[in-house]
Design a protein that fits this description.
Oligomer: homodimer
CATH topology of the largest domain in chain A: Four Helix Bundle (Hemerythrin (Met), subunit A)
Largest interface: A-B, 24 and 25 residues
CATH superfamily of the largest domain in chain A: GntR ligand-binding domain-like
Order of helices and strands of chain A: HEHHEEHHHHHH
CATH architecture of the largest domain in chain A: Up-down Bundle
Strand order of the largest sheet of chain A: 1-3-2
Largest sheet of chain A: 3 strands, antiparallel
Structural class of chain A: mainly alpha
DNA sequence: TTCCTGTATCTTGCATACGGACTGGAGATC
DNA sequence: GATCTCCAGTCCGTATGCAAGATACAGGAA
């Protein structure tokens, strides 16, 4: 018998969650913005129940903050937050890369090259949002091939924030995107060559430079509602 | 004016979540056991809504599995699961210890000693459940003092599973608890002396030995409902 | 003016109702 | 006896209603 498996239609909760997540990550909403369950449910054309459940999930991903009886707000990171997030992210990514290299070097490399191509395409296309998305995909590759689901889950738990910061706080600095591309190229090269130490240091520099940029923007206070 | 701040009564969701979590972690429920939202809500004396929300949170902690339209089940780890979990746990704990040592050595050491004392008390008292709980607290200390909330969150995301395995899969092997105590003592000593490399290797041995024990029990198949 | 207070209106927390999807078993059919 | 079909029971997904806390603001008292 052929494989006739049908995919289940997504639940409303899943749809709402994805929609809201995209709205936050793609900067359709401002950091700190107030969200009302009722307003959202009306805007989305569903009842409050799935909205509420989706918001609860997003809270666990750190994308919104729910204050009892007051309201729900898009997350608003402090400088310290961003710093800790970067440190944590570096820890996860470096570990994931280590696992990738020892367990699934070939497939991981191929996927990284694909993602890199997508980044180049986005850069050529000139859309900052597309570039940020491709960047996100690139880093997700590490976790798809690391062979440890818990590592991947942990990353998923912060990837929303990372991606959101990328979109909200990235400023089109002179040559910034070019430097980012160059670093990604270097990472792929180091990975292909199996130079783990180099890879670590590039990744560290890459993430910490991003942190600098974010911190600058945060200090300038331009992103608050 | 004196400080008269009142603590907010916990929400029903939080209460239900904690209650269910304890029930799973303390092995009041069997691994793989079926949970019905309605049955739970009746047993707990609340409506399905908070139960449902609590179950969703527990799913994100990996303590239950929700199958759409079918039911909710207490998690049932495979041998592979446990292996990946141990690897991941070692990664997190070793990183947390590193941060503790460089940022909050004194307080962390004090807290570890307290936890150790509690473990000894539990051992003297002879309750396996109390010992397992104290063990859990000991390892949580690392994350309370590591100064990185994301690291702590990531641990919270798996600590339920870790704690549950401790209770479900630990068998009172000859001298097992004594060996565990000895290892914890060694860890505290190494931490106090600032011997990070030793600490790492003790921790690694400690976790991997636990893994061995769990795997044995899993293979024997005694824990399934 | 300044401060307090009552109230209108917002928010979420929780309970409940209904319908669709799944499961297991009794009975019919071959 | 084996297999199919139908049906009742159970579960979840979603919508809706009500209660209670939080907030903002108008209006009165000092």
């Amino acid at each position: 018998m052929p494989d006739l498996k049908v995919e289940q239609p997504k639940s409303l909760v899943a749809i709402v969650e994805e929609r809201l997540r995209n709205a936050i990550v793609d900067a359709e909403m401002r950091l700190g913005e107030t969200l009302s369950e009722e307003a959202l449910s009306e805007a989305l054309g569903v009842s409050r129940t799935p909205v509420r459940e989706a918001l609860a999930r997003l809270q666990l991903q750190g994308l919104v903050t729910i204050v009892p009886k007051k309201g729900t707000f898009v997350f608003a990171p402090t400088e310290e937050d961003v710093s800790e997030l970067c440190v944590f992210r570096y820890m996860l990514e470096t570990q994931a890369l280590r696992e990738c290299m020892s367990k699934a070097r070939g497939p991981a490399l191929a996927a990284m090259k694909d993602a890199l191509a997508a980044m180049e395409a986005a850069q050529a296309g000139g859309s900052r949002r597309d570039y940020a998305r491709a960047d996100t995909v690139f880093h997700e590759v590490f976790f798809q091939h690391c062979g440890n689901r818990y590592l991947g889950n942990a990353y998923r738990g912060v990837s929303g924030r990372v991606a959101a910061l990328r979109t909200h706080l990235s400023v089109p600095l002179e040559g910034e995107q070019e430097r980012s591309m160059a670093e990604h190229h270097l990472m792929v090269e180091a990975f292909a060559a199996g130079r783990l130490a180099d890879l670590d240091s590039i990744l560290h520099r890459h993430i910490m430079r991003a942190w600098d940029a974010y911190a600058d923007v945060l200090r300038s206070g331009e992103v608050r509602g």
